[in-house]
Amino acid sequence: MTVAVLLGVSSALAAPVANAIEADVSGVTGELATNIRNYLEPLDIPADAELQGYSAEVHERVENALRPFGYYAPEIEIDLVSRDRVRLQVQHGPAVKLRSLTVELRGAASDDEPFQQAVADSPLQQMRDKRLRHAPYEALKSRLSALALERGYFDARYLRSRIEVRPWENAAYITLIFDSGTRYRFGDILVSGSQIRNNRVRNMAPFAPGDRYLATDVARYSQRLNNSGWFRSVGLRPRLDRQGYTSASRIASSPDARVVEPDGSSNESFIDRVELKAPEASDRVPIGVEVVPADRQQFEVGVGFATDVGPRTQFSWHIPWLSERGDSLENQLYLSGPEQTFSGEYSLPLENPWRDSYYLRYGLENTDQTDTDTRSQQSSISLGRQWRFENDWTQNVYLRASYEDFTQADQDGQVLLFVPGASWSRTRVDNQRFPMWGDRQDILVEGSSESWASDADFLRTRLDTQWIRSLGDNNRFIGRATLGATLTDDFSQIPPSLRFFTGGDRSVRGYDYETIAPRNDDGELLGGEQLLVTSLEYQRRVTGDWWGATFFDAGNAFNDWGPDELKKSFGAGVRWISPVGPIRLDIAHPLDDDDNAFRIHFGIGPEF
């Protein structure tokens, strides 16, 4: 065994070693010279080879590199200096011009707007009587083929796809006739491997059998199944065999281009017909769904730090499916210096689990926040119904019962509340980890009354909005605003969990956590009936995953509309897009606090 290995190594060492060739190009510049080098780079000339024997291959590669740009009659001088270097003097010669262009859509796609738009937007339409370029032709072909796969034209084919080049006339003629055939529709959904009832898995689809096929609907269906938490893996595919397309790393001559000689002969092979697949007897596409069940018991531990609450730890226990109906249970324990919380949720999905569900939520919370003069022990339970809509909004309607024993500055009490409420929310981002575009909206309306045995009368609302927009790849703009209001005849009966405070990492930076609010005569915080907070932030990429930031924050909690003054701050910070999410470090200067020149804020986690 050892001898055989040694012999193999010796043989390999003795073999000629080939190196990629480097080209010095003169006579042409820019994309022409670059493409020549790209075509020659893969050429390997063995160490013991006769150099001049490779001149013909070098000549052919240079010709092929110029053809995509419309130059079919170049003059080329070759000097093979060594096996890994060549000098080239190139004159590209006269350009071939496009004399005739024929592009036709046939079949159902001729009345389908995306196909019509693809043809209208193609640079081919502006290339008549100008220099021939192969790239726009190939781009249009690829676009039509991609649209056919995306929109369910699985019998699509090119009746004719040809670039006919006549160098002796300096002329080219393009013919592209695309026959889409009929558009397919969704067929049955075939589920395998699911521990959840198959009809519930099918009901999560954003389409019904008989709807026109769209690949984006298949992708949305896959996303819903993944987000359900029921499955470790999800695989969806239309039950069709179809041909794919690949792209080259260099600007390549079109495979449909053929050179015609004056006598009509062609020196290149050509295939007129290109098909995506053979026609099928039925116009229905079954969708295969293959899933693997998720682990029934899931545990997670997280640790973190924020200047608002200091070190924090979170334990979670999640059971993503309790039965074949898809019921789920989640419990969380959150621990920090000022706050300790235990919460849980039992979710009961309905026939369409993605769209509708009932839930039971419960929790225990202890707060001992010296900075905000708050001490509170709270227990709560709520029953609610959730709806998800196609426009990405989520609606919740609920009834919450809570008991809170609290001390807020010089006020204390024990309050039992029965609170009906409703909320609406929507989050849209282009990237969960670090979005360059996104927005989030949250609207809450809830109230309570002594007429149904609550200890306080109030109507409360809160509106949150946040926006992320970008300019190019290196500039982000973030804006956010929060507006809250409480209507009540006896504010002293409103527990701290329903009062408004602001200040801290996520509101008005430069101030301690939730230390901006009305105070009593002794300077202790009471909390406010109204809330207004705004923020503007600009971020600029410094290098890689490192960003710099500048910001301006303003806000206050108050008891009468039209606060006497908004607390304001400005500052600068650093963002690092770490594998666990963005890490933020800010230095903020409060404009309305004579006792503190600046405050450092640190946090981990996404903006939304």
Q: Could you characterize the architecture of this molecule?
A:
This protein is mostly beta strands and 608 residues long. It has seven helices and 29 strands. The chain has helices spanning 2-14, 30-40, 55-66, 113-121, 134-150, 198-203, 215-227; strands at 19-20, 22-26, 44-45, 75-82, 85-91, 97-106, 157-166, 171-179, 185-192, 231-238, 257-259, 274-275, 284-293, 298-306, 310-319, 328-336, 339-349, 356-369, 374-388, 394-408, 411-429, 438-448, 458-471, 475-487, 530-543, 546-558, 567-578, 581-590, 599-604. The strands form five sheets. It has a 16-stranded antiparallel sheet, with no helix packed on it. A hairpin with a 2-residue loop joins β4 and β5 (85-91). α2 (30-40) crosses α3. The longest helix has 17 residues, at 134-150. The two termini are 61 Å apart.
